[in-house]
Each structure stands twice: as C-alpha cells, then as structure tokens.
User: Fold this.
Amino acid sequence: MKSAIEKHDTELVFGIAHRIKSSSNSIGALGLAETAETIELLGRAGKADGALEHFSVLGEQLTEVTTFLEQELKSLNAA
Assistant:
C-alpha cells in the first residue's frame, strides 16, 4: 500500500484499503477498520495526499491487533 500511495495509484490504494477494512471489521478490529476506511475514501476520491500519514497509523494499529491476536492464540493453546 505504501508503494501505491507514493506512486499516487489511488485505485490500488482504494482496493487494498477496502480489503483491510472488511477483514478488520470481520474480526472486530474497529479502529483498524476505521483507519483503513479513511484511506479507502481518499483512494476512492483519487487523492493520495495525506494517505501516507494514515498509513503510518494503520501500521501501528496492525501491530497492536497482531500482538493481541497472538496473545489470544497462546491463551487458547494453553487451555
């Protein structure tokens, strides 16, 4: 996605962000989904400006969600 943002490929930005939004919503990662939706809307509007900042936030949120899911899996495996 970062490459697509830097290249101003807003169609690709839209598509990737849309998939991240949908997947995040399905697992209840609503903050991640909200940030992805913001990027998705920028892509849909043909705007790449500002998307890189949101991409940075998205990366941080993805790390948090991944860490949470890994901890949940460990606790399920331990049970």
Notes: The longest helix spans residues 51-78. The chain is about 80% helix and 0% strand. The helical segments are 2-6, 10-26, 30-44, 51-78. The CA atoms of residues 41 and 59 lie 18 Å apart.
